[in-house]
């Protein structure tokens, strides 16, 4: 799914009977934005906004107390931005919540740094409430928001003045096997585990093993994070990665073709 497909994204259905709601903390320095997001999300079945924070410094103590499933985090905030707040959550908590960053512009440089810090994905502030709710449900369920074309554009801008690709390689990249690199390239194109299985003509369990090894070796906590780290270390080059099988399409209710289980 691309962010420009927001108007065509379909609303998510109600949470299955008997399942607890996805708990969410909203973090934004603008009170009206927080109130608006709370109102929109509380109207969605299966989602419960349990807390709000106006600054990144408030996030860790609030999350420690409330233990939400997902943090919807603005990236640009005074005192402590969403990037550093995301890093602190990963560093201080053994089981941190999933972070979805919200931004005004999809090419915001802050987005790249937030993804590198471990955010599971990002979404526009002006996206329809159905799309924001769907994103929250997906990451809470262990999925990752992966936008191949947008990540490639962000990587291209981020490394315009960077040194030669081989010079950025580190021990994480060197530890990857050739098959794990192949798997990573297909992940970067937005392919699901099932699609990677067909492309590489290996079993689904083998693909899950490769994906798990990629995440472990790159010290990544989700697929998007792994792709961003791969760009950072030179395993992936922006000009060599494109979305698979043409432009991405809006996800149907309940599943985004570019979003897959991490393992």
Q: Any overview of this molecule?
A:
There is one protein chain. Mean pLDDT is 79; it is low at 1-13, 161-169 and 245-263. This protein has helices spanning 31-42, 59-66, 82-92, 109-116, 129-140, 148-158, 165-168, 171-174, 178-188, 193-200, 204-217, 223-233; strands at 22-27, 47-53, 70-74, 98-103, 121-124. The protein starts with 21 loop residues before the first strand and ends in a 30-residue tail after the last helix. It is of the alpha/beta class and 263 residues long. The chain folds into two domains: 3-147, Rossmann fold (3-Layer(aba) Sandwich), CATH 3.40.50.2300; 151-240, Response regulator (Rossmann fold, 3-Layer(aba) Sandwich), CATH 3.40.50.2300. The protein has a five-stranded parallel beta sheet with strand order 2-1-3-4-5, sandwiched between helices. The chain has twelve helices and five strands.
Question: Which key terms come to mind for this protein?
Answer:
single chain, 263 residues, alpha/beta, Rossmann fold, five-stranded parallel β-sheet, 12 helices, 5 strands, 43% helix, disordered N terminus, disordered C terminus
Provide mean pLDDT, rounded: 79
Largest sheet: 5 strands, parallel
What is the CATH domain class of the largest domain? Alpha Beta
Helical fraction: 40-55%
CATH architecture of the largest domain: 3-Layer(aba) Sandwich
The topology string of helices and strands comes to EHEHEHEHEHHHHHHHH
| Strand residue content | 5-15%
CATH topology of the largest domain: Rossmann fold
What does the radius of gyration come to?
18 Å
The outline comes out as globular
């Amino acid at each position: 799914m691309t962010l420009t497909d927001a108007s065509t994204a379909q609303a998510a259905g109600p949470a299955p009977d008997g399942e607890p709601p996805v708990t969410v903390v909203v973090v934004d320095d603008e009170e009206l934005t927080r109130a608006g997001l709370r109102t929109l999300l509380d109207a969605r079945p299966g989602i419960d906004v349990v807390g709000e924070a106006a600054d990144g410094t408030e996030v860790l103590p609030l999350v420690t107390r409330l233990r939400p499933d997902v943090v919807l985090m603005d990236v640009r905030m005074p005192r402590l931005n969403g990037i550093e707040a995301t890093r602190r959550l990963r560093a201080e908590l053994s089981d941190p919540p999933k972070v979805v960053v919200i931004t005004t512009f999809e090419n915001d440089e802050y987005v790249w740094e937030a993804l590198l810090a471990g955010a599971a994905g990002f979404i526009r502030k002006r996206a329809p409430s159905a799309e924001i709710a769907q994103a929250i449900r997906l990451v809470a369920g262990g999925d990752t928001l992966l936008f191949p074309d947008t990540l490639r554009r962000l990587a291209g801008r981020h490394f315009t003045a960077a040194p030669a690709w081989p010079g950025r390689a580190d021990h994480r990249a060197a530890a990857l096997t050739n098959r794990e690199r192949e798997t990573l390239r297909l992940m970067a194109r937005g392919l699901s585990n099932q699609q990677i299985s067909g492309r590489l003509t290996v079993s689904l369990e083998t693909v899950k093993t490769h994906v798990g090894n990629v995440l472990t070796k790159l010290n990544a906590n989700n697929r998007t994070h792994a792709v961003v780290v791969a760009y950072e270390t030179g395993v992936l080059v922006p000009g060599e990665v494109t979305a698979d099988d043409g432009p991405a399409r809006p996800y149907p209710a309940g599943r985004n073709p570019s979003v897959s289980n991490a393992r």
